[in-house]
Amino acid sequence: MRFIQTTLALALLVAVPFTAELGLNIAGLSAFAAEEEERRQKTRRVPSMSESTFKKLAEAQELIDLKDLAGAEQVLQGMLNRSRRYNGNEIGQIHNMLGFVYFSKEDYKGAIREYRIVVEQGEDIPEGLEVTTLYTLAQLSFVDEQYTEALRYMEIWLSKANNPGPAPHIFMGQVFYQMEDYPSSIAQIEKGIDVAQTRGTAVKENWWGLLNYLYYEEENWPKVMEILEIMVREFPKRVYWIRLAGIQGQEGMEKEQIYTMEAAYTAGFLERERDLTNLAGLLMQDEVPIRAANVMRKGIDDEIIERTDKNLRTLGQAYQLAQEVDLAIPVFEDAAKLSDDGKIYERLAQLYLEDDEYTKCTAASKNALDKGGLRKKQNVYVVQGMCEYNRDNLNVARKSFVSCRNESRRVEDESNQRVCQQWITFIDREADRRRQIAAAI
């Protein structure tokens, strides 16, 4: 059914067992009728059933119990083919049993035809039978996609039922949903929920789910969030936490989005890699990188987050932003080995430069240039040249800055071209100064 497919795709709803409920209503008509009769003060005098009719119905019932539906149908049709005239009550009982036979054979059109004959008997059948048959007709019409008829029978049922519960309103909401009349569907679902809450009975998860989906289709985001807040409280599941956080982010409620994701994380509902990486990204965006790093580190250690160069780079960046350079460097080293390009080695070279690890800096710079895939190769030459200069390798440093100048000219990067030329001039003067000192000595 389109209803089930749509709700599963959005992960918002729990499938409603229409067929199971329908079977219960049809198979348990006597119990339902008895309950309705107890609720009602009004009594109805109906024509009595003859002994011969009762015996034939009992024979058909016995065949139904034995799963011999064909035999039961033959007995019932035989009764109708007899010349004997039946009163309204007898006609109603015969067609009621025939309706159940057709329903059991999944011949819903046939079942609807028979049940219509039952309610046509009006005051000649017991009131309980009339009420339950109307309810059954509503559900069968729904299954047969006769939505207008389903609503009509349910409205008649509501006019006859005494203090009905929430179920008929939920049912009508589902019918309106199938008709794509979302405002009417919302009104009925909310009515059903209100009846349930007034009676102190539980509101089912799939009722909230359908209502949430309807408001989602109407793009009523405050109501969507309001219902999702109820669902994460009453039926805490990952999908509801993620959906709530997503809508909060969509509506620019970044703080609330982070609180929701952290609450879900603390409660153990974030169990997938993308959940944890999304939370880490939000925390870094909120300028709390050490918490982001802790989420990433635990996810990797717990083998929820795959140990890829991308994920390790995210962890390294979180440590770096948190000023935890000593923790960031080994993470970037592992990430660089897994990466197909030199970008992580480029970042490592910068970290080594900041940490005065000049030998490692020059090695990382070389690896970055060898692997390639760099956005601005001239930047790596700058870092490499500075590290070589600090290692007192003036000639090697000068070559790096010359490479930087040449690359900058090629890509028309005037800023780096000027910087690298200044370094070349500075190194040349320093080399001259050292030669003069050496000559003087």
Explain what the structure shows.
- There is one protein chain.
- The chain is mostly helical.
- It has helices at residues 2-10, 18-27, 29-39, 51-65, 69-81, 88-104, 108-119, 127-143, 147-160, 167-178, 182-199, 205-217, 221-234, 238-250, 254-266, 273-285, 289-301, 309-321, 325-338, 343-354, 358-371, 377-390, 394-411, 414-440.
- The termini are far apart.
Topology, pairings included?
Blueprint: H1 2-10, H2 18-27, H3 29-39, H4 51-65, H5 69-81, H6 88-104, H7 108-119, H8 127-143, H9 147-160, H10 167-178, H11 182-199, H12 205-217, H13 221-234, H14 238-250, H15 254-266, H16 273-285, H17 289-301, H18 309-321, H19 325-338, H20 343-354, H21 358-371, H22 377-390, H23 394-411, H24 414-440
Helix pairs in contact: 2-8, 3-8, 4-5, 4-6, 5-6, 6-7, 7-8, 8-9, 9-10, 10-11, 11-12, 12-13, 13-14, 14-15, 15-16, 16-17, 17-18, 18-19, 19-20, 20-21, 20-22, 21-22, 22-23, 23-24
Low-confidence stretches: 1-41
What characteristic shape results from the CA principal axes?
A: rod-shaped
Whole-Å distance between the termini?
Answer: 95 Å
Please tell me the overall pLDDT: 87
- Supply the number of helical segments: 24
What is the oligomeric state here? single chain
Structural class: mainly alpha
Q: Biggest β-sheet: count, sense, barrel?
A: none
Q: What is the helix/strand order?
A: HHHHHHHHHHHHHHHHHHHHHHHH
Q: Please report the total strand number as a whole number.
A: 0
Helical amount: over 70%
